Amino acid sequence: MLDKKVTLNTLRAKKGKEKIVAITAYDALMAKIFDGEVDVILVGDSLKMSFGGENETLRANLDEMIYHTKAVCAGTKYSFVLGDMPFGTYATKKMALTNALRYYKECNVDALKIEVDSNKIDVVKALCTEGIAVMAHIGLKPQFMRFEGGFKVKGKNEVEENELIESAIAMQEAGAFGILCEGIKASVAQKITQSVQIPTIGIGAGVHCDGQILVWSDAFGFFDAFKPKFVRQYCDGKDMLKNAVRNYANDVKNAVFPSDNESY
């Protein structure tokens, strides 16, 4: 359990020394449960899938992300809060600045995450120049799912490997405080981690990143439409909750809830 607020300096100091633990959350209730147990809470646009029941992240908008990030920030005291910039909000440098500044002003968020490649170096640099902490998301980028015809693992050949390493270094030079590596071959993610001085957080990128992140509904067994290879389930949350709901329903139907002690 953390006893003080995680900051950028906290995360930087963990590089190569102590693994960073990250999880997603979309509301104050879950944020309060995770707060202090993990280093980083990401308010991801994954909420469109795990929270909204959709099959992709693209329809998340800035108003939604700000709404959910405010809720997570309200429930967080110790963990570092990272907000996702949704699809279409950073297509140009000017657009990225306008939307990121609004996000930063309206939420007590610690940093923003954007899905990038070498074509977005100017965007990352512009945000960092304005004092906005940025985590660069490279590799498999869910916002590019339609463009790429699905979720494609990256780093499978030498060209992709070199591009990923070069992108990570370029993002570091542009001012990014960290790199999120998603869906990258483990050996390539290890080389990326070794090539930069900033921390890397992996999801489906092997054990050699400086930290790991999972979507909370995946990690705790609430989402079971499919199970990605990289997910480890730490409890069967869906069945536990279903059983609890059934017990509640039975108690109501059989008039054993509420009892005298639970009545005024």
Tell me what you see in this structure:
The chain folds into two domains: 8-233, Phosphoenolpyruvate-binding domains (TIM Barrel, Alpha-Beta Barrel); 236-263. The chain is built from eleven helices and eight strands. It has helices at residues 8-14, 28-34, 47-50, 62-74, 93-106, 121-129, 145-148, 158-174, 186-195, 216-219, 237-253; strands spanning 20-24, 40-43, 80-84, 111-115, 134-139, 178-182, 200-203, 211-214. An eight-stranded parallel barrel has the order 1-2-3-4-5-6-7-8, surrounded by five helices. α2 (28-34) packs across α4 (62-74). The radius of gyration is 20 Å and the shape is globular. Pathway: Cofactor biosynthesis; (R)-pantothenate biosynthesis; (R)-pantoate from 3-methyl-2-oxobutanoate: step 1/2. Keywords: Cytoplasm, Magnesium, Metal-binding, Methyltransferase, Pantothenate biosynthesis, Transferase. It is found in: Cytoplasm.
SSE topology sketch:
Layout: H1 8-14, E1 20-24, H2 28-34, E2 40-43, H3 47-50, H4 62-74, E3 80-84, H5 93-106, E4 111-115, H6 121-129, E5 134-139, H7 145-148, H8 158-174, E6 178-182, H9 186-195, E7 200-203, E8 211-214, H10 216-219, H11 237-253
Parallel strand pairs: 1-2, 1-8, 2-3, 3-4, 4-5, 5-6, 6-7, 7-8
Function: Catalyzes the reversible reaction in which hydroxymethyl group from 5,10-methylenetetrahydrofolate is transferred onto alpha-ketoisovalerate to form ketopantoate.
Cofactor: Mg(2+)
Binding site for Mg(2+): 45, 84, 115
